[in-house]
Amino acid sequence: MSKQQKRTSTTIKRIKNAGLRLFAQLGYHATSIDEIVEEAGYTKGAFYGHFKGKEELFLAIMDERMAMHQTEIMKSFQVHEEDGLNAIARQLEYVIQQAQDDSWASIYFEFLANTRRNPEVQKKLALMYSNWREFVTGFFQSLQEKGLVQINIDIQLLATTTIALFDGFNIQSYVDPNVDPSKQIQIISHLLGVEQTSAN
């Protein structure tokens, strides 16, 4: 990687990190591009050199998070594969915890509310969800081939349902703190034909 490529990578990373911090602190709508570049230590020119606007920055952050989750899930499962069912529960708990720890769920739902009439954003979100469903489908297929789960319904439908459960529990826990999003592990485990639901 050349020096210019390293500088570009560093700039993008710092802008993303600054955006995520401010989205969590102030909310997506309330955060301005001026505040993001000030937090990151750059000018507006640097921002617009890499992102068309705040929506594109958010989508870049979301895409990066999805890729990170997929990598961590596969890496961890490969290491703990001999742990069987506990390894499956561990991966589910990881994704759920990540969404709760950094206020991502609340930021994401606010983003959806603010961009619901933007066809370009909706198209990109649809592609991201398609990629996420493809990953979950492949992961479930791998589990079934290894004999770790017993799936009796269409795997693609199961992947879609699992993601919908994840989003639904996060919405409910966002508006009602008494809802425990980790309970979805029990439902997903049941759909996978898994009786053991705790990684402890």
From TrEMBL:
InterPro entries: BetI_C, Homeodomain-like_sf, HTH_TetR, Tet_transcr_reg_TetR-rel_C_sf. Coiled coil: none annotated. It comes from the Bacteria. It comes from Croceifilum oryzae. One of its GO terms (molecular function) is DNA binding. Keywords: DNA-binding, Repressor, Transcription, Transcription regulation. This is AcrR family transcriptional regulator. Residues 32-51 bind DNA. Residues 9-69 form the HTH tetR-type domain.
